[in-house]
Amino acid sequence: MEAESEPYVRLATMRQLHQAVADLNTARSLADTLQTVADGIVNGLGYELACVNLVRPDGDLVVAAFAGNSAAEALITGRVGSRTSWERRLSMGQAWDELRFIPHTDGWVLLDDDVPQWHTDGPDPRFEDEWHPQDRLYAPMYASGGGADLLGVISVDRPRNGRRPGAWGREALQMYASQAAIAISNARLRANMQRALVRLEREQQALRASEESFRQAFEYAPSGMAIAEMGGDQHGRLLRTNDALCRLLGRPASVLRRYSFADLVHPEDIGTLLRTSAEGGRAELRLGRRDGTYLWVSLRNSVVADTADGPRFLLTHVEDIEERKRHELHLAHRASHDALTGLPNSAELRSRLSARLCDRPNATATTPVEALDAAYGDADDPDARTHGYEVDPAPGGPYDHHVHSVAPDTEHDDGAKGLAVLFCDLDGFKSINDRFGHHTGDAVLIEVARRLTTCVRDGDTVARLGGDEFVVLADGLGDADAADLAVRLRNAIIPPIRVDGRAVRVGASFGIGWAACGMTAEEVLRSADQRMYVEKRSRSKVHRRAG
Fold this sequence. Notes:
The chain is an alpha+beta fold. The protein is 39% helix and 22% strand. It is built from 19 helices and 18 strands. Strands 3-2-1-7-6-5-4 form a 7-stranded antiparallel β-sheet. The chain has a 5-stranded antiparallel β-sheet with strand order 9-8-12-11-10. The longest helix has 36 residues, at 167-202. The two termini are 21 Å apart.
């Protein structure tokens, strides 16, 4: 049917990766940051060994951190490999985007160079993607700013599943290496800033030199920096910004001095900004750019005293995390949507359907007048709001603000509206797959998904349940409305579909179910599925194919 896609991104793996990235910013020193980088590979990315090689001022790389084997750590930590040998490795390896992989069949020529290494002998791989003990995988880290200035190299070994990483594993390692480079750069920056602050507080005689050091670190920081007022009527107003922040937000420093971060933050993120504590506070939110767009950034605040007893200011470090957020949204979308058609998948369909259901059977729909009665009480009928059930009416209770789903009476049209669940099964699709192959079948599924989507309203849901089965959720429909919608959807599907110059046709059988509180999502889908099969059996095979 559809081509094989990347392995399903399990939420547990995503959480481990996100936790490993989050841990990078918790280390207080450069040494702690380097060790955290190595530990994150072992604990979060599924490798048994990880080594962080850091570029020294002279250009050579030193083993700065190791994780996974104490004997290997004692043997090679602190050892140095020449820049020439490292460049040779990074140039000869297979390019997996920014990663470099050297299989054991090619890496034997590296056994005698001066790069510190730890490996054990092992048998030849039994299958193509099995990991060999002498395979090498490197993740270069580059200084922030998108340049080619090498910061260090992460080397990994022994995947716990025994296989070479697939597309998702490579993407995860590359994204982690990018975040590790930022964390290491920031750790160096924080160390410089802390030294500058100590000099400002303790060395009054060297005040000018300390201020100049601070200015250099502030102005030439690779990420955005800002100083804002603390206290008084102008609390939060930006007093000074560096060039990196001006470029990030597309505004000159003279304009930024008119604003505070509260003026620039996205309206949905103002609460996040206000909840961020002044000293040591962190937040991820969106800031407005001059062109009207918003950019995801990470804010980290610290308090700076002008002199020993002088006014205090808020120093804010602003880091661009737009790319990371884009990756997170991409991964979340892959987890909840069908890879072939782009429609919500089975898990997302069940999630949306379950959100509309509660466990109170026979609940009635709520009119605007009844909603007011529920809010202010009904002295004549104390059970009116609970329908005979004991529930918590307080805000935040289990049924607070819940709009009950009620199935219309299909026997007698009483004008009631409900959440219709249309279960669609394609007729004749299997023969297309058998005759013309899965490529044609996939093209048919994509076109059917497009046609279904164009026939529904903006608020409706079209999901692919799996195979040639689709489900449409349409709220606010009566029994006749749902039947009309099924006819429109069937008529949209039956016109010929052209694939590679060939016209193919499929029909569709629809079963209409209704979501009602007291039912589970599985029960709702099963009901619609059963009605679909009743409808399919009621039509001849020729008529089914014709739609």
